[in-house]
Amino acid sequence: xxxxxxxxxxxxxxxxxxxxxxxxxxxxxxxxxxxxxxxxxxxxxxxxxxxxxxxxxxxxxxxxxxxxxxxxxxxxxxxxxxxxxxxxxxxxxxxxxxxxxxxxxxxxxxxxxxxxxxxxxxxxxxxxxxxxxxxxxxxxxxxxxxxxxxxxxxxxxxxxxxxxxxxxxxxxxxxxxxxxxxxxxxxxxxxxxxxxxxxxxxxxxxxxxxxxxxxxxxxxxxxxxxxxxxxxxxxxxxxxxxxxxxxxxxxxxxxxxxxxxxxxxxxxxxxxxxxxxxxxxxxxxxxxxxxxxxxxxxxxxxxxxxxxxxxxxxxxxxxxxxxxxxxxxxxxxxxxxxxxxxxxxxxxxxxxxxxxxxxxxxxxxxxxxxxxxxxxxxxxxxxxxxxxxxxxxxxxxxxxxxxxxxx
Length: 407
Ligand code: AMP
What we know:
Layout: H1 10-18, H2 26-36, E1 41-44, H3 51-63, E2 72-75, H4 79-92, E3 100-103, H5 110-118, E4 122-125, H6 127-135, E5 146-149, H7 152-157, H8 161-169, E6 176-180, H9 186-195, E7 200-203, E8 214-220, H10 226-236, E9 242-245, H11 249-261, E10 266-269, H12 275-287, E11 292-295, E12 310-313, H13 320-327, E13 337-343, H14 348-358, H15 380-393
Parallel strand pairs: 1-6, 1-7, 2-4, 2-5, 3-4, 5-6, 8-13, 9-11, 9-12, 10-11, 12-13
Helix pairs in contact: 2-3, 3-4, 6-8, 13-14
This protein binds adenosine monophosphate.
């Protein structure tokens, strides 16, 4: 099946072909005809499935040509995603006259105001800045024909749903609405029945399964050996580019600092960094200037970093969905990738939760010749018994296998 039979405009097909796309991905095959026909849609799909083109190509087809008023609005949870989606729209619209504007916080208002005043048919925005521009009457949503709510579960996690609702209220009722979300919890189902009309529903792949092209494993270790194990993993892995996730921004800074001291070229991505630093980190990592990027979850969702060969979770993600998204950074678009998760005994409950969520047992691996201080970590029954006991005895701060000093 090619892109030709899906009802897309010719220049749009050429735009996709120019990007090297030969065949539509499964979500594109299902979503494009529905969107071209003007229907509302609720879609859930794993990251890296070609979701952006699944909505962008038919949205461009419906818009046909630029008219200099906002007719397609795309809401994204993070600046990075907004930038990525805006740039994808530009690529697909390469053979069309279609002004596109990117709106997000962390930068000045001037250029965004200027672009909106000049007239844009497509606006890709994060909710906060767009609301500001609506309040100052710089943006007018009364001509919106296609409203795209992307990564809605992430917008929910980030507390954006009230802003999203306010924005939707400024759009005409007669419009097409497309909602993309990895999961559809109660609040999103409510939002969906409020703002969509008789939507088609698409679910691609097992929603909970990690990308099938990723080999993943847990590496148990004592808490005070985590960094040593990370270094040992890095030294023994042949990688092109590696993304390391930490739970906190401080953790990301600390690890990046230590890695730099070991002569690694390191980019850092988290929300305490300035917009300029975030762009520089992402561009530098994509372009090969940095071989390692240390990031918090901000980078976990949807960001397309082609060629990430490895992902390391320095901490076990506390939400099982984040595990799937984080390791989804590697193995994108059918390329093989590896994902390692360093785990300590205290994180065992999160590990179990992840395994329940993805309905798989993830192998526990031991790095050969690494000077482990506690091999008992590999016997989880034993670990669990100790944890239960520790929980009973100590109710604060917890118990760590890593407390004992290494010789
Ligand atoms: P997304 O899920 O939208 O982030 O897309 C993941 C990656 O797949 C991006 O690098 C896209 O450029 C790429 N991609 C999307 N659709 C196709 C396709 N039909 N053929 C090949 N690559 C694609």
